[in-house]
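WARN no homologs supplied; continuing
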Amino acid sequence: MKKKSNFNINTWLPIIIFALIAVIFGIATRGEIFQGANLTNLFNQMAATLIAGLGMLFVAAMGGTDISCGVIVGLAACFSCLSAQSAGGWIMIPVCMAVGLISGCVLGFINAKFHVSSFMVSLSMVIAYRAFCSLVLGNNAYLVPSSMRFIDNFAFKLLVVIILILMIMYVFNYTRFGTYVRGIGENETAIRHAGVNVDKIKIAAFAISGLMAGIAALFTVIRVGGANNTIGSGFEMRVMMALFIGGIPVQGGTGSRIYKLIFGAPTILLLENGLVLCGASGSVTQLIRGIALLAAVCLSAYMARKFANVGTEAAQNQKIAAAGDDAAGK
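OK structure emitted
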């Protein structure tokens, strides 16, 4: 029998989409999108999205949903800027991380212990936290101390992003925790029967998601230069688009891979930036973003069903072949 090709379109799809978007807008903008200043600006926008996505990857791999990263950015920015007014700029770093970590633990605890949908819990948090930020800040804006501006330095930001990617990659791919997270997305019941404390894994996964959102909040508030009651609005949509356009399965499982996020984050930013450089209005950009997200989710679901069927057919063919070999032997 001839060997079948091992080419898996689902594996290469994020890279293909990224290359296609880059070529299209490279031609449409006559290379303007690849100019040094524009690429630096794209990375500055992408850094926070990528960092938050690294945390949300754990939740997505379990088949969960966390839409609280945008409001965590707002809440962390609010507390960190207020704290910096009296305690100095350095207090912003632990405050942002603590706000994100605590928020993630609360979300994970409610989801795991009370069996409430992670989407509903995070939606409730979005409403409550945004209202709290409005009550605390009102219409006021609090500026970031000048001593913290070094965080917005390109080299420093790049170094932090690389370190975080390597750390998350190790935890996600080479530890039991990462294996359990993906296993929950494949079959939570089987993981429970294997003796794994699923509740503990879920809380830890949401805690990591919240912590990374807190780090993303630090980069965001430093880059913006201050905090107001609207900071972080819409941020969660960009992170989710980076995940799903990159090909992370909506249902989670073993199809969740870090490289898909690494290609998905610049893809969505190239799409937005390319449309702006081409003169598209804000409404058109939002429309195309929505269509792109819907197409990515539909494609992800289709590919998941297709390869599940292929796997089932392959297993059946192997059984038939084995039965034939046994019969021939007899």
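Residues 78 and 136 are 8 Å apart (CA to CA).
OK
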